Amino acid sequence: MRAVIFDLDGTLIDSAPDIAASLNRVLAANGLAPLRMEQVLPMIGDGAKVLVERAFAARGEAATQERLAAFMADYAAHPVVHTKPYEGIVPALERLRDDARPLAVCTNKSSRAAAEVLEILRLSRFFNAVVGGDATPYRKPDPRHLAAALSALEVTDAIMAGDHANDMKAAAGLRLPGVFCAWGYGEAEGEARAERPEELPEVIARLG
C-alpha cells in the first residue's frame, strides 16, 4: 500500500489559536493592533517568515528579522497552549498504522517546532519521519520538499494529505495523488476530498 504523507497545521492539528496569540503579542510589542482569527487563518501555510510578513503587512509595516525572531521565540515558548489534534485524527492515524502504511509529516513549519508539537500532543508515535520547512532548501509547494519526505520514508510512492493548495501542488509536481482536507485553513482541489478526519482511511484506501 502507498505511504501517506501529512501536512501538519490545519490537517493534523488546529494550531491557529496559538499561532495567532504569538503573532498578536509580537504586534502589540510593536504598538500595532491585533489581528482577528479570520485574518490569521489565510496567512498560515507558507512558513513562519511569510506568516510574519503577512501579519505586519496587514498593519502597514515591514517584517524585520528582529520581528521574525521575536515571533519564533514567543511561539517556541507557547506552542501547545490551545493547539490540539482535530477530532477524529487519532483514530484515523491508528487505522492507517494498523494497515501498516508508512506515515510521515511534511510541513513548512520548522523541524524543531513540528517535532515538539507532535511530541507534546502524543502524535509522534505514528510517524516514521518528520520533514520540516528548514530540513531542505525547498518548501511546499516545491515538490522537492515532498520528495525529501518520500526519501526519509525510503519509499517512491505516496498519497499527500493536506489542507492547503501548497500540499496539492507539491503532490501534483511529483504526480502523486492528493487528498484535500476540508476542515483546515485553506481551499484547494486534489484527486480526492475528505470532509472530516474520520473519512481519511476510506478515502486513502480508494486511492491505493
Q: How would you describe the overall organization of this protein?
A:
It contains 9 helices and 8 strands. The protein is an alpha/beta fold and 208 residues long. The chain folds into 2 domains: 3-14 and 83-207, Rossmann fold, CATH 3.40.50.1000; 16-77, DNA polymerase, domain 1 (Orthogonal Bundle). A 6-stranded parallel β-sheet has the order 5-4-1-6-7-8, with helices on both faces. Helix 1 crosses helix 4 and helix 7 (143-153) crosses helix 8 (165-173). The longest helix has 14 residues, at 16-29. The radius of gyration is 16 Å and the shape is globular. The chain starts with a strand and ends with a helix. 45% of the residues are buried.
Morphology call: globular
CA(first)-CA(last) distance: 6 Å
State the helix count.
9
**Could you give a short account of the major beta sheet?**
6 strands, parallel
Topology:
Layout: E1 3-6, E2 13-14, H1 16-29, H2 37-40, H3 48-57, H4 65-77, E3 84-85, H5 89-98, E4 103-106, H6 111-120, E5 129-131, H7 143-153, E6 158-162, H8 165-173, E7 178-181, E8 192-194, H9 200-207
Parallel strand pairs: 1-4, 1-6, 4-5, 6-7, 7-8
Antiparallel strand pairs: 2-3
Helix pairs in contact: 1-4, 3-4, 7-8
